[in-house]
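Readers outside the structure-tokenisation community will struggle with the description of the input data as it stands. What matters is that the chain and its backbone geometry are given together, residue for residue. For illustration, here is how one protein appears when written out as sequence plus structure tokens:

…
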Amino acid sequence: MTCPMTDAVVAFVGRSGSGKTTLLTQVIPALAALGVRAAVVKHAPDHAVVTDCPGSDTHRFWAAGAQHVALAARDRVVHTHRYAADPGLSATLSGVHDVDLILLEGYKRSGVPKVEVIRGACNPQPLSGLVGRIACVTDVTDMVLEVPCFGFDAVAPLAAFLMAQVVRH
């Protein structure tokens, strides 16, 4: 049921600390239970990221200035590419294959459909000017939006919603 990337991408967006990562770690197995093979792309444009352990061979290759480092292990292949600037969503997604759905964490300014994550203790207000919101996950009980709202404990219904709205068979 592999779908074209442009049809099967959804971004989980929200303020820092709202619970996007925790929610995604729950959504992935819920989607897997529905037979969906999901990929996740995390957008961290403002962070210095260490992709492997300092002192490891691949880290040493990267520190030496390699433009591309790949590690092939028994159960995975990890590629690290060097870019002078943010490569953009299109370039990032070009390396994702053999999945039914790509879940993004971040990319709130992208043109893909978005699930906004709003935690009351973080900031109970929706993101201003967010374009493409298709759903909301929140613990704010009086949230009024023109999209379906799910509680943080409603992972199975959220997965079913994503199947119906984003994953097209």
Q: What stands out?
A: The beta strands are 9-14, 38-42, 68-72, 77-81, 101-105, 114-118, 133-138, 149-150. Residues 46-85 form one domain.
